[in-house]
Design a protein that fits this description.
2 domains; rod-shaped; mainly alpha
Length: 102
């Protein structure tokens, strides 16, 4: 049970970091920079800052997961499957033992 709490904490930390460091946002900003009219330095920097914040907020609302989160969940699922298979074997052995007793 303790590992589940640690795993959830790692996922929350990873999500918080990656939402703010998404390379996709940088790529989109570069594309938009080519489309935006040239503006004085401070105005352009302010516009880029606002666009970045808007894109980060939009992506955060999409409830996307990172590759790291996906890999962690895949590992959890694999361990759960292994445990389930072991329990199924135990149940089958117990049923067989019970059947042989009667």
């Amino acid at each position: 049970m303790k590992s589940s709490y640690a795993l959830a904490h790692i996922i929350r930390e990873t999500h918080a970091k990656t939402v703010n460091q998404i390379p996709l946002i940088d790529e989109l900003l570069k594309t938009l920079q080519g489309v935006l009219p040239t503006a004085p330095g401070p105005l352009r920097a302010d516009l880029e800052k606002n666009l970045r914040a808007a894109m980060q907020q939009g992506l955060a609302r999409m409830n996307l997961v990172t590759r790291e989160e996906l890999e962690v969940q895949e590992a959890v699922l694999a361990r759960t499957r292994e445990k389930l298979e072991a329990l199924e074997k135990q149940v089958a052995a117990l049923e067989e033992a019970l059947k042989n007793k009667t």
